[in-house]
Design brief:
The chain is an alpha/beta fold. Helix content is about 30%, strand content about 20%.
Length: about 200
């Protein structure tokens, strides 16, 4: 489906920032190992330093190295809602998940979007994981269409990837933290958790 795979790979490998469709809203991301890329995302969005980015991939297995352990309740949520509109916040693996990406917190949000174009982007990306946030300026509405992503990110993101007809639903993911066996909802979004 994606026609410019080489360009996407090159941008990411050179500390670049890309904008792309997901199942919820448009995303903005870079490689987690790229401190320059992460800093660029904060600059583009004018994002507060204390607001962490999350990690997204096409498969939970690519994300496991970035976290310490997913508690049992978290594993149940992964089985039920991944791929989908749930961001799970768990304790991070500090060796893999840098502080510059998580605002110095000891946790990280992980998500596997349910979108074919996004899956292809992850297959192209070295390591199959992106450090990501929504493709809009802070405190502005999220981009819900390719047109809105172009309006928000033209001249800011290094590359805005077409959605090839795989559009997003337009409602942000639900963000839930799992610590031991406690579940805490940080943001109610597209998924209503049943636990």
């Amino acid at each position: 489906m994606i026609k410019n795979a080489d360009e996407i790979k090159k941008v990411l490998e050179n500390d670049g920032v890309i904008a792309y469709v997901t199942d919820t809203v448009w995303g903005l991301g870079c490689l987690p190992s790229s401190e320059k890329g992460v800093k660029k995302i904060y600059e583009i969005k004018k994002r507060e330093a204390q607001k962490p980015l999350i990690l997204m991939s096409d498969d939970i297995y690519h994300l496991l190295a970035y976290v310490k352990i997913i508690p049992k309740k978290g594993q149940q949520l992964v089985k039920k809602y991944f791929p989908g509109a749930l961001t799970l916040v768990v304790k991070k693996n500090p060796e893999m998940t840098p502080d510059y990406m998580t605002s110095g917190l000891d946790t990280v949000g992980i998500r596997v979007p349910d979108n074919e174009v996004f899956k292809e982007i992850c297959e192209i990306a070295p390591g199959h994981v992106l450090a990501t946030t929504s493709a809009n300026l802070s405190h502005q509405p999220s981009a819900k269409t390719y047109q809105q992503a172009l309006e928000n990110m033209s001249g800011l993101a290094d590359l805005i990837i077409e959605d090839y007809g795989c559009t997003c639903k337009g409602l942000e993911s639900t963000v839930a933290g799992v610590f031991d066996d406690d579940i805490k909802i940080f943001r109610q979004g597209a998924v209503t958790l049943e636990v």
